[in-house]
Design brief:
Length: 54
Amino acid sequence: MKYQELTHRVIGCAMEVHKYLGNGFQEKIYQRCLSIELNMNNIAHEQEKEMLLQ
């Protein structure tokens, strides 16, 4: 699959954040930490990109 490796890396980042933080934080905290983790793993991303409905 075309995105299999990227998907594996992104899920790994999400699991690392969850392992470090655990449960109980607001969603925004997880978003910020995931962004940091993605940056540390050189995975380009955008947070909460607005999508226009047509």
